[in-house]
Amino acid sequence: MDITSQIDEILSMDRRQDEVPSTENPHRLRRVSQEINGCRRDETANINTELVDSCPFHLKGCFSGPEGTPYENGIFEADVIFPYAYPHCPMQVKFITKVYHPNISPVSGAICVNILQDHWSPALTLRTVLISVQALLSSPEPSDSLHTEALQHFMVDRRSFEETARYWTRIYARSPEPVAANDSEVDDAALAGIERIHIDRFEALGFQRSAVIDVLRKLNYRGANVANILDEVVIEKLLG
């Protein structure tokens, strides 16, 4: 049974009042059903949805990364919850897929996008929200960061940031792009966006590789910023 049929079956309960739970809101059900159908009809957006635990107000949305970005060829999943007061308050959306992006939390998947906060309007729909989230991947907003390290990386070395975001896409977003033979295991340096030559230099001093990567990542040891960070500062952090 597809997602629309599942919701239609739930809606049919509205015609049998003795079977409808007292907490049910048929208006919200109809609205969600219409929005899911809107996603299905828009073939250009390429957005797919499915119910979570057969709950019509808890969905998993799925969409592809925008072309021409580090997220291209990735398949991204988002968790969507429609609260009881929907559409008078915004749906709750967060990424399930790990994404390297200034406006997306790498821990919780929370997304900083204004239409899910103070710019919410009941006129917005599941389709427009997921398209906006998809568009956010193309245009990071430095003023609303949820991932400070990714933001610092983005600001100091755009090329390196994009390489790191592309690697996260290959590892976490089910990208069909083949992984190189020497990357058959997850490369912790690539995940952190730190050049191996810098890691090797401090590792040669006797420090553990994982500790070196962690310190260099936190110091934003990337691009032009490398020249501004003294070796003594790095070593002090490693010893501390």
Automatic annotation (TrEMBL):
Coiled coil: none annotated. This is UBC core domain-containing protein. InterPro entries: UBA-like_sf (IPR009060), UBA_C_fun (IPR015368), UBC (IPR000608), UBQ-conjugating_AS (IPR023313), UBQ-conjugating_enzyme/RWD (IPR016135). The keyword Ligase does not apply. GO terms for molecular function: ATP binding; transferase activity. Residues 27-174 form the UBC core domain. Keywords: ATP-binding, Nucleotide-binding, Transferase, Ubl conjugation pathway. Belongs to the ubiquitin-conjugating enzyme family. The active site is at 112 (glycyl thioester intermediate). CDD domains: UBA_II_E2_UBC1 (cd14311). Transmembrane segments: none annotated.
